[in-house]
Each structure stands twice: as structure tokens, then as C-alpha cells.
Specification:
By secondary structure, the protein is α/β, with parallel strands linked by helices. The protein is built from 20 helices and 19 strands. Strands 1, 2, 3, 10, 11, 12 and 13 form a 7-stranded antiparallel sheet that branches. Strands 8-7-6-9-14-19-18 form a 7-stranded mixed sheet. Strands 16-15-17 form a 3-stranded antiparallel sheet, with no helix packed on it. Helix 10 packs across helix 11. The chain is globular and about 65 Å long. The N and C termini lie far apart (50 Å).
Length: 504
């Protein structure tokens, strides 16, 4: 039913004159009609009723700020006071999207992506599988790879539509699938070589993978170790931590897809749970893989008073009709407050910030007519900090290998802001707000690797190394396997906006 309603909405949107002029190329910027994604201005809301701003001193006495837009949305301050505060964890047992509640933006994003009943990764996401591995050495150049990939994308989705047509299918790909098995083999070489140097022959090779997708990386790593390092394979244990029940089932079925895959069954354990509910102490040394998962960790939204520099934390109110309203309060929850303290203490390298300009410039800028009275939002990776806490507390001898995007195009307004997008009729449709229908939109953030590295070091006490995606693969992949005849290499160039961080 949800899918039919969303299809109806998109059909109306695409019938608009502006949308009807689109070519088949994706990336259409537009706004959903019922989401607050317009001119970023805010008005202060007192405890009982709206009132006009009078003096700068009044600012310090007000606690709630509701977004004001050019559509003059209804004042929801009374509802904000009386609606209950909920969390993503409290909503995990719900089958329907909540109404008449408020929550932190962090919890709204988490619920949108991971709720078992309607979350994006639980119910909507489909991972592209190209079929047979690409023969890169036979291709003339990178453009031929791009054309062949587009052809296989179409064939893959055509087959899905024969079984179940779906205009709103959320299809995406990973480097593991595009460069199978070469990408997984590079990871396997990294793991085996570091294991031999640090832990062999006294310890087992224990690998944890968080968010294993189709299970392809797991199989590629195990296939490589079994073929080229049988003595290490005998001591290898591969454990998948997967929050999505559907993906966990898919990974289990992958283990039974062939005789070769079934041979790994004794070495694999698939744990259908969230890493954030982990409560088992792992004393043994282990390797922790987090490849392209950090970008989907929930973030908090923080805005600052441009005059007092006081932070305010973003909340979402969902009314009785399911409409979203954005509020900012001076009451910073302990998780966000701790992140701000840790970042201030740990980060020695400069990072972008809404208060980066001088107080004089801000004072002039924010006193201009029609100027907003809060800064643009800063999205802080509070879930990432909690992930590092879990590694420190439950995996004290871990070595982390994480890869993700250091830059993303077409992000929404703000600092460290996400890309928010969906797919309709096989086209990518970006929007301008994270407050969107839960489950139908991917919300992915760029990662500031300098900030991440400093915070990881401060919380775990471990040393790290950050490399570009290309530099890491030049060290560990057989790059000649993915080289076209003219010397171009998609494995090295396709993820130029990604970096890799490893524990050393």
C-alpha cells in the first residue's frame, strides 16, 4: 500500500511541466510538497504561545525554535510541548510509521533507515548484482565498462520487473559487486598479511563484517584464503553482523548457492542484530570490516545562535497527519553533548563549522534584513562515536578496516550534510531535506576522515592510517586484473571520492 501511495505522489510530481522536460539522465532536484525544505528561517517559540522577538536578551530566555518557511506553516509549539519524546529503539517494534510524537533528528534518521517494518534497508533496498564478473582486460576503455554496466543494470531490473513491477525500487551498487572478485581479494590480502605478521600461529583469524549486503565480500574473502592460504583458512572464522533480517536471510542463502560456497559454512556465523545492541565481550584479537556503512550512520543536527554561539539540537515533530516539523532546542542530549566535547578535545586539525567566520562578520550578516536567526545546520556523527565506544568496550583487541566517501555531490544545505535521494522509474531523485517519508529515501553522509581518525584515536587509544581508496587498492589489489586495454582502471578511478582508514 505504501508503495502505491508513493508511486501516485511521484506520478503527480513528474507530470509537472518542469519535471516533464527531464531527460533520462538522473539527478533531479525538487522538493516534496509536504516537507519543510524551503527558506531556512526560524522564529522563537515561548513556553505558551508565539510572540515577536523584542531584544537580543530575549533570545537567551527562549528554548524552542521552529522552522519558519515561505509557506507560513502552522505553528506547532503547543504540540511540541505535549507530544511524547520517542527514540528509534522504542519504535523498532512498531509496524506503522509513528504520528503525534517528537524525536531527535538522529532517531528519525535511524528509524527511517533501519526500522524492521518500514526502514529503507529492511524493506526497500535492493543491491545490484551484475552476474558474471566483468572481463576488464578485454574492454577498450573505461567508457566501455560504463556502457556495459548500464546494460547489465537494465537487464537486472528487467528481470525483477517480470516477477514484481516496481516504480519505486531502491536499487544501488557497491564496489564489492562491481569489481567482484578482485575487490574482495584485495581485502583478503590485507587481512592475511596483517594476520601473519601480528597473530599467526597463536591466534585464529577472526573477521567481523558489519553490513554484509549480498554476502559477496564474505565469499570472495573466504574463497581467496581457502585457495591461496589453506593453513590460514583452517583457522579463519567469519562473523557477519547484519541489522536487516532480509539481508541476513540473503547472506545465508548465498552460503547454499553452490558447492563451493557451502564449503565455507563451518567458518561462517551470521548474526542478525544491530552492532549498537552488542553486549558480548570478545577478548580475542579480531579484524572488523565496516565498508560503506559509516555513511548511513545516523547524525544529529546542530544549529548555533550566531551571537551567543550556543548550540541547539534538532528535533522532528510528526503530527496527526504524518507531517514533519523541525524544532531546535537548547537542551542538548548527553550523546550529542559528549560528541561536541570529545571533538573539541581530540581534533587538532581544522574542520568546517557554522561558526567559522569571525564574530564581527557574523554580527553584520545575521543583523541584515530577512537574515535567519540560527546558523545553517551542522550534522555531527554521534552514531559513529557510539560505534567506536562499542569497539573499545567489547572488541578491545580489534583492528578496524573502514572505507567510505569523503565527499558527496548534491548534498542538502548545511555542514557535513547528507545526500537524501530516492529512485522513481529507474531515475535517481534527490530532495532537499532529511525529513522525508520513512523508508523510501536513502540518507547518506560524507565522512570527514580527519575528524573520524582523531576521535577514533582518542576513544580507543589505537593508532591509525588513512589512505585514499586508490592508494589502498594499489597496495593490496592486483590492479592489472581490472585494467582496460588503453591503461584506464575503473577499480582505481570509480571511487576517487572515497578513503580508507585502518588500525595499525
Amino acid at each position: 500500500m505504501d508503495s502505491a501511495l508513493l508511486t501516485n505522489l511521484f506520478r503527480r510530481l513528474f507530470s509537472h511541466q518542469t519535471c516533464s522536460r527531464l531527460t533520462s539522465k538522473p539527478l533531479l532536484p525538487f522538493q516534496l510538497a509536504n516537507n519543510s525544505a524551503r527558506k531556512q528561517q526560524y522564529h522563537r517559540i515561548p513556553n505558551d504561545a508565539p510572540s515577536e522577538d523584542k531584544t537580543h536578551e530575549d533570545r537567551g530566555r527562549q528554548s524552542h525554535w521552529q522552522q519558519r518557511t515561505d509557506l507560513f506553516l502552522e505553528d506547532k509549539s503547543r504540540d511540541f510541548k505535549r507530544y511524547p519524546m520517542v527514540t528509534a529503539d522504542a519504535l523498532r517494534g512498531r509496524r506503522e510509521r509513528p504520528k503525534r510524537v517528537k524525536m531527535l533528528i538522529r532517531d528519525f534518521i535511524e528509524d527511517s533507515l533501519y526500522n524492521p517494518s518500514y526502514g529503507y534497508f529492511s524493506k526497500q533496498a535492493v543491491i545490484f548484482t551484475p552476474g558474471e564478473p566483468f572481463d576488464f582486460n578485454s574492454m577498450a576503455n573505461e567508457n566501455q565498462f560504463h556502457a556495459l554496466l548500464g546494460q547489465r543494470y537494465t537487464e537486472f531490473e528487467d528481470k525483477l520487473d517480470v516477477v514484481s513491477p516496481n516504480d519505486t525500487r531502491q536499487l544501488w551498487h557497491t564496489p564489492t559487486e562491481l569489481f567482484r572478485p578482485f575487490y574482495g581479494e584485495a581485502m583478503a590480502r590485507y587481512l592475511v598479511e596483517n594476520y601473519k605478521i601480528s597473530h599467526s600461529p597463536y591466534q585464529d583469524l577472526i573477521i567481523y563484517e558489519m553490513g554484509a549486503g549480498n554476502g559477496t565480500l564474505m565469499l570472495n574473502i573466504l574463497d581467496y584464503i581457502r585457495q591461496f592460504n589453506p593453513d590460514v583458512y583452517d583457522r579463519t572464522k567469519f562473523k557477519v553482523i547484519e541489522i536487516s533480517s532480509s539481508l541476513a536471510s540473503l547472506q545465508s542463502s548465498q552460503l547454499n548457492s553452490s558447492a563451493s560456497a557451502r564449503g565455507h559454512a563451518a567458518h561462517v556465523e551470521i548474526l542478525n542484530r544491530s552492532i549498537f545492541s552488542w553486549d558480548t565481550y570478545v577478548a580475542a584479537p579480531c579484524y572488523f570490516l565496516a565498508l560503506e556503512v559509516v555513511d548511513n550512520f545516523a547524525h544529529d543536527s546542530i544549529r548555533y545562535d550566531p551571537f551567543t554561539e550556543e548550540p541547539l539540537q534538532g528535533n522532528v515533530l510528526i503530527d496527526n497527519a504524518g507531517e514533519f516539523y523541525e524544532f531546535y532546542t537548547k537542551e542538548i542530549d548527553p550523546v550529542a553533548a559528549r560528541f561536541l566535547r570529545v571533538r573539541n578535545a581530540a581534533c587538532s586539525r581544522p574542520f568546517d563549522h557554522p561558526l567559522k567566520s569571525s564574530p564581527f562578520v557574523r554580527n553584520v550578516k545575521f543583523r541584515l534584513p530577512f537574515a535567519p536567526n540560527l546558523t545553517v545546520p551542522e550534522y555531527i556523527p554521534t552514531r559513529l562515536m557510539q560505534f567506536f565506544d562499542i569497539l573499545r568496550d567489547y572488541f578491545p583487541r580489534h583492528r578496524l578496516l573502514t572505507s567510505d566517501f569523503n565527499f558527496l555531490p548534491d548534498t542538502i544545505k548545511g555542514i557535513n550534510s547528507p545526500v537524501v535521494q530516492t529512485r522513481y522509474q529507474r531515475r535517481v531523485v534527490p530532495v532537499r531535506t532529511p525529513l522525508v517519508q520513512q523508508g523510501y529515501f536513502d540518507i547518506l553522509f560524507p565522512t570527514n576522515f580527519a575528524v573520524m581518525e582523531d576521535i577514533y584515536r582518542a576513544l580507543t587509544g589505537n593508532l591509525t592510517r588513512v589512505l585514499s581508496h586508490e592508494d589502498f587498492l594499489r597496495r593490496w589489489a592486483f590492479v592489472e586484473d581490472t585494467e582496460a586495454r588503453n591503461g584506464e582502471n575503473p577499480l582505481l578511478t570509480w571511487y576517487a571520492n572515497a578513503s580508507v582508514m585502518t588500525t595499525v
